[in-house]
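Lab notes, practical 5.
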Amino acid sequence: MKQQILKPNIRELTLEHGFSYPTDTELIMMILGSGTKYCPIEILAQQIEQIISSYNREQIYENLINLPGMGKSKALTIMAALELGRRRNSFQNAKIKMPSDILPFVLNFSTKKKEHFLCICLNGSHEIIQIKVISIGTDTKTILNPKEIFLEAIKENAAGIIICHNHPSGNCTPSKDDINTTEQLIKGARILGIELLDHIIFSQNSYYSFVENKLLFTES
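Output from the prediction step:
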């Protein structure tokens, strides 16, 4: 018996209407790509959706591999998609009360060999709306256009922003360029009425907060 291949109209409709268009079952079908000789893809996707909805994260893999014809490969594909989604969306509505609160949501960039400059947009309650990579530089320097940061903040209707970037060297002490860039951003934020809450430099084992160290930022 041939494998049941994903009907192309689901992909076409998704490309036409956007990724919010498919149902959860159809999203799982696109992740799988095909069913098995034991089970058509529609049925398999429905069974997977039921497991994802019914069990704790720690129990999902064990229940997936028990599905007839599922196998480790497809189960791992589903688990990888779930984990990627969790990592990318775990910040939603997280409230930032102090500089260190931001670290769990950006530490995945600490292993990058190049500097990644991030803009974290927050609402008036200091809850994270979005985390966006604004610029990727070299191993020692990030080329940054401040306009891109404020465009992102305006697009997200952010009340405030926190800017972050990693130091691949592991030394989180700000450079002269870091200080000059932050000074420019503070001036721009005042003009636009968007609060710049902090600039955080981080590595795998440490971080530097401009606010905590009272560098350019006042307590007010």
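Observations recorded by the TA: The radius of gyration is 22 Å. The first strand starts at residue 116 and ends at 122.
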